[in-house]
């Protein structure tokens, strides 16, 4: 953020330097016996705090109207604090009133500007909080996030699949990969629901770690996951399915089998593509010798 404020910061620091040069030119150093160490310490702490405020604003705020209020308000306080500290070590001639004015007037103006900026910053945070609350409510109300695995759910899968279909370029491939955990119902009966939930969470993390950043994995039903693979032909999706099947035994020692179904997505709606995926599963269920497995329960 510093580079965005470089110009006005340079101008302000040059102005402060010019006033300090004027102060040392007009004033004379006080004797140590005449300096108040307590006042000097207080002014130094005030100067350090104002500098910290200005540094935080510059390093964390983007350019804009609210940032300008905060920046110039903090700088004017820093300006006054610097001249206050200089006043503890310099003795100005009685006829020199300019430096006294420069020491006194910027502080109240800076406090007003800083207050306006803080009020605007507060309103910004209120808007951001409302947006975050609205997004959280949207996710919760529409069940886009599965609460157990923290993966996306079928509602999100429908939305992103429709988007990919509409935005797909000519010749671009799009595949769906279904991952069905065979034997999970028996695992739940033998070890309990809590153990089954823990297994699903572990598998969800592992599945997500095996995918590319552009891939989308969703929990489609209790023990069934669907992966959306953009720019992926069915042959590549088959290789991914074989990799996941071969590696499952290294992830869990339970007697589970990962069955897969790979399906290319044509020019159809998301609902039609997922319905076709379910039909493929249903056909595979009626053919026990098939390398695919069926799964007929679906969340909507």
TrEMBL record:
Keyword check for Cytoplasm: no
Catalytic activity: 2 GTP = 3',3'-c-di-GMP + 2 diphosphate
The keyword Signal is assigned to this record: no
Keywords annotated in UniProt: Membrane, Transmembrane, Transmembrane helix
InterPro entries in the cross-refs: Diguanylate_Cyclase, GGDEF_dom, Nucleotide_cyclase, Rev_trsase/Diguanyl_cyclase
Known EC number: 2.7.7.65
Signal peptide annotation: none
Record-given protein name: diguanylate cyclase
CDD domains, alphabetized: GGDEF (cd01949)
Domain GGDEF, chain residue ranges per copy: 172-297
Domain of life: Bacteria
Transmembrane segments: 39-57, 69-86, 98-121
Lineage, top ranks: Bacteria, Pseudomonadati, Pseudomonadota, Gammaproteobacteria, Chromatiales
Gene3D superfamilies membership: 3.30.70.270
